[in-house]
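note to self: dont lose this again. the chain is below, predicted strucutre after it. 80 aa total, dont forget to put it in the shared folder this time
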Amino acid sequence: MPTILSKNGYRLFFYSNEGSEPPHVNVEYQGAVAKFWLNPVVLASNLGMSAHNVRKASGIVQQHETHIREKWNEFFSKKS
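---
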């Protein structure tokens, strides 16, 4: 489960077994986890994160979308 970025208590990461899904990132904050599809950035699932924190997480994902996509491609190309 590689961490891609940590910012303001939000940890962005991938699960190593999710390479068959479209590009996305998981965001953990205070024990809650939300999943965001990339391009466009949209919430895919939410396990306990408040709406306020989902908006903050979404903003972080949007701000770093290019970097996240590069890390996605780099990580999952090595696994195939």
